[in-house]
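Question (not urgent): is this output format expected?
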Amino acid sequence: MTPVGKFQKDIFPSYLAYGLIDPSKQLSSPSISIRQNIHFAQRARPVSFLHEDHCVAYFKPVHRFLIIANLAICLFLAAFSFASAQAIPTSGASSTESLIARLDQVEATLSRASLSDQTYAELRTELNAIKTEATAQKERLEPQLQEAQARFDALKPAAPAQDGEAKSDTQAPSLTDPLQLQQSSGDEQDNAEPTTAAAPPAIAGPNSETEELAKRRNELEAHISELDAQLKLVTSTLVRAEQLSNRITVARQQRFTSQLLERSNSILDPTLWVKGLAGLATTWRVAVTLMTDWSHYISNKASEQIWQILATLTFVFLLIFGPLRILLFRGLSRLASLESPTALQRSYFASWAMLVYTIFPIFVFWAITLILINANLLPDRIELLFKHLSFVIFAGSLSYGLARVLLAPGRPSYRPLNLETGDATRLFSIALALIITFMVETLFDEVDELLFAPLETTIVINGVTSFLVALLVSLGLRMLIAAQPENDGTTVLEEEKQGGFSLPRFIRFLQPLIWLICLITATAPILGYVSLGAFVAEQLGRLFIILGLLGIFSALIDNFLLEHLSSAEGPQKRISKAMGVSTSAVNQLGVLLNGIVRIFLYITAALLIFTPWGVESTDFITSLQNAIFSVKLGDLTISPINIVGALVVFIIAIVLLKSVERWIEQRWLPATNLDSGLKSSIQTSLGYLGVIIAAMVSFSYMGLDLSNIALVAGALSVGIGFGLQSIVNNFVSGLILLVERPIKTGDWVVVGADQGYIKKISVRATKIETFDRATVVVPNSELISNRVMNWMHNGSMGRIIVPIGVSYDADPDRVREILLAVADANDYVTSYPAPVVYFMDFGASSLDFDLRCYVQDVNNSLTAKSDLRFEIFRALKEANIEIPFPQRDVHVRSVTLPEELKAAASQQAKKPRKRRARPKADEIDIDDAQTIDTAEGDADAADD
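Got this back:
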């Protein structure tokens, strides 16, 4: 029995017995809501209460207990009935119809003109809810349709016989054409003729089927048609919701652009200044009048009770505020008293100081506002003014705290930026002036409607503040860039270990963009675009605040993870022992967590920066998904704006991907145990992948259909193939080198007559650095097609051979002992595999031995050979074992010389040798000294 039936059978008579329900009134609904059960006694007329006995019985304690028990049971059963009714899923058709009705309402609202931003936001929220429900229905219908189709395929009749008879009329129609399903089913019913007598039973054959099977197949046909129709209707609903969402996006962008580019009088117009100053005086009088009225309001409301309430609230405020102030500033002073703070302590100080400088002023203001509101001393207009002031004070205190933390004029050891104290003090003064300017502009923008400020006054104030913002930002940027030292090759990881963060690199990278923004901010009010100048100035300040907060929180997360997960002095060992993993795994976990948090911070900062420009989080995520997963965006017209936008998107994508690649190269890969060659392969592959992703994103932004590009590339493939054959060959060879990895970065290879270390495997060629510090560029195709000797392909271990020759008088066994002892004593030689000595040959003048041993790193082979030769020479000399040199006995037969030659030789021997006179030292040219010595040596050789 259902809860409703139980209520009507058991509890309903009890209500009749005690007169709580009029029996003449029937229940209009099979289910009873909670609200109806609660108000039964209020809505029903207690007709039986008029009887005295009933009144007396009603007020008996037992009866009251029964009434309360019945009411509790009724409420419980009604709530259970309501939950059960909610749990029962509605049919697909009715839910889809409700979605279509809601879409009709959204479209009708969009057709109206002059919608506010709040209305657009509400419509966007409604469309997102509709798309979520439609997606859930689609995900529910698709498996049902597939299951029904599978069952239908199992019930298909057997194939027709080979004698050519026609196919069965019950052949299943196509799933993609539900109309054909309905039409075929209808035709079968129309063509069926009524029979007066049952047909004789047919003889069952291999292709025959029973009526039950045909009936079941027809039911499945109808079910498939219904599911397919619902699925198409839900898909159409999704498409329509997406189209309406795009309409909202376009409408908001058009509204934003029209408001931003609305032109007014130039800031240089004298009449504008006259009207603006006059309006400013009027606004001041309105403000004075408002304050006067407030003072009269307080005087009229003032009483002894009001002052008591005010004093009590003030005491409570001081009671809470005093300990809180002591707690905040005591923690800040404790951190500031450290003489040599660590990087994590500096990050703690920056975060704590930001909290104190931001929370303290706004907390005091909110407390005062609360006291005045509870004392009923704030009229409506003054309360609205206080709300605007709270926002201005919050923005100002946040900006002040950020400037105080980043520049730290009085604490050089806690300064994140690498600035001198004088530069930091001057920059802090500029930052204070900038904060005051922003606060004045923001305050006037918030209260201009409250004070009935004229339009001319608003234009003048916005124009002047925009120009001042541009001037102050330009001065501060110039001073900041001039005060920053040149890049000394310090990596991001080293900067973070020193306690800083890469905000100056951000500023250096954004320097041209900030100069352009300052130029627009200063010139827009002059040209009459005051709204544009004020908006850009506001976004410039917003950009600085977001980047500063991003730097502080990034440094805090980095230093925290570095201290606790990546530092050997931290709790890395305890975490490693508790998790049962190695310290290297804990280090990698810290790096990955750092990367995830950084991505979250960067996405949040990007959303905060681009939100005022009309970009919502849902739009941002949807656009990112479309750019990554959907290359084909449709047949869109390519315009120069799209091309420029695509180039900008490509550059931004390249910069972002390069930053990710740099982070992987400098942070993640050093934390792994991978060899240098595999690290280089990963870096190169990421570079290729980054360029491909950036190209895909830019193509998607332009709306190019890659299938058309493929057709054009296919038509030009022959010409491109002949022209770029070598380049493509080298590129493919480079990919093979990265995947197959016959060589890696850092390997010692021999290619032809050249040998050295591989420095980089690029797209077209591989760079090899020889031992003479020369670079040899080898095309990748040669490394694939030609022979390459890699000393380090299977590892860094290598074998060295030292040949030695000793005299025939030496004992070979003694020589072997000496050589093995020398090898065992060498630090580079491994104990396993053990060194061996081979007696190679009986030489012409020596006994030839080979000392063969292994070194752990083949890069040390030359040093190991040299050390072994030194020690072998010393050991053989101490053992009196001679190392002979090649000796030959030359036998010369006696030859009888002619008498004339003997006489000439004797006369030549008797002549004294004549020496050439050497020039004086002051007569010799320094450049010709070598030439003179060479010529003199040649002459002496000729004389000899």
